[in-house]
């Protein structure tokens, strides 16, 4: 496609958005941008890029390559962030530790690296969903005392699972094989009792594990993660068990698939009211869901 100078006259621009979600997945959508009439070429490009990011609900640091087809049609190619370790929506980037039942749970250093595909590489850094879910768990000690807990996709921080252990649960922290070194390093660095570690890839069954409570934070953002994740959570949950899921929307199509897959397995999903989340840990971009078998528990 020839890159032409963006024409100045069109106020309403149709944007054809291509999103490079990961190496294997591209999504295509259409949206509109309305640059101001007197905008410079750079400002018109910026308006198109902003419209594409908003439509995809991706973060401001995503790269967007804008090309113009006509005065009123542009193509926006949105690719993964320039720095794969950069955290979108890092509401808690400066948080040093989380208080759980009088104990201080430090956040890990942000220097971990996990080799592997895009999904596994995300295990290297602590995400806002994990912080929000751990803080919420700390407000619900009765859910964890004496219970068996499995955290799925715990990553380098494993905050929800570690918080559950501090609240009296017996916890298995799990993630893909490639992430095990950072998860083990994490467990070794915090003196939290009743925590074990196990490699668990949702695509390979649950290996005999079961849980009263399953915890998962920011683990579903690609379409092909939905079915394996939901199947794994459903297989883990004992009767009467519950999944607490912190979720950050990155694609409404993925969200729809997630809620549909939960319902198909008889798992009832309700959002925890924002006002019930821990004070100071209620960012707009994270929602917490409580998922139970066969009805609200
Ligand atoms: C965005 S990170 C979130 C990490 C952590 N829960 C947090 O909130 O900081 C997504 C996590 O899901 C894990 N994950 C992705 N695909 C997985 C799979 N097929 N099986 C198990 N874990 C997976 C990644 O390894 C990573 O730890």
Automatic annotation (TrEMBL):
Coiled coil segments of this chain: none
SUPFAM superfamilies the UniProt entry points to: S-adenosyl-L-methionine-dependent methyltransferases (SSF53335)
InterPro entries: Methyltransf_16, SAM-dependent_MTases_sf
Pfam families per the UniProt record, alphabetical: Methyltransf_16
Protein name listed in UniProt: Calmodulin-lysine N-methyltransferase
Upper taxonomic lineage: Eukaryota, Sar, Stramenopiles, Ochrophyta, Pelagophyceae
């Amino acid at each position: 496609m020839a890159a032409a100078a963006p024409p100045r006259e069109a106020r309403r621009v149709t944007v054809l958005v291509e999103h490079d979600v990961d190496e294997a997945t591209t999504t295509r959508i259409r949206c509109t941008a309305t640059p101001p009439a007197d905008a410079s070429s750079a400002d018109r490009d910026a308006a198109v890029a902003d419209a594409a990011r908003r439509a995809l609900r991706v973060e401001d640091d995503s790269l967007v390559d804008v090309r113009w087809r006509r005065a009123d049609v542009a193509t926006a190619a949105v690719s993964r962030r320039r720095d794969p370790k950069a955290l979108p929506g890092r509401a808690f980037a400066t948080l040093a530790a989380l208080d759980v039942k009088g104990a201080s749970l430090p956040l890990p250093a942000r220097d971990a690296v996990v080799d592997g595909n895009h999904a596994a590489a995300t295990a290297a850094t602590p995400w806002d969903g994990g912080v929000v879910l751990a803080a919420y768990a700390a407000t619900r000690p009765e859910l964890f005392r004496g219970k068996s807990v499995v955290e799925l996709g715990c990553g380098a921080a494993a905050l929800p699972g570690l918080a559950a252990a501090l609240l009296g649960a017996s916890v298995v922290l799990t993630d893909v094989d490639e992430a095990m070194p950072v998860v083990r390093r994490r467990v070794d660095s915090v003196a939290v009792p009743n925590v074990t570690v196990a490699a668990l890839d949702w695509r390979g069954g649950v290996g005999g594990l079961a849980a009263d409570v399953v915890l998962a934070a920011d683990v579903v953002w690609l379409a092909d993660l939905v079915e394996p994740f939901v199947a794994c959570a459903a297989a883990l949950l004992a009767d009467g068990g519950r999944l607490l899921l912190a979720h950050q929307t990155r694609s409404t199509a993925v969200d729809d698939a997630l809620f549909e897959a939960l319902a198909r397995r008889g798992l009832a999903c309700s959002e925890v009211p924002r006002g019930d989340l821990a004070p100071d840990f209620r960012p707009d971009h994270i929602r917490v869901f409580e998922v139970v078998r066969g009805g609200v528990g």
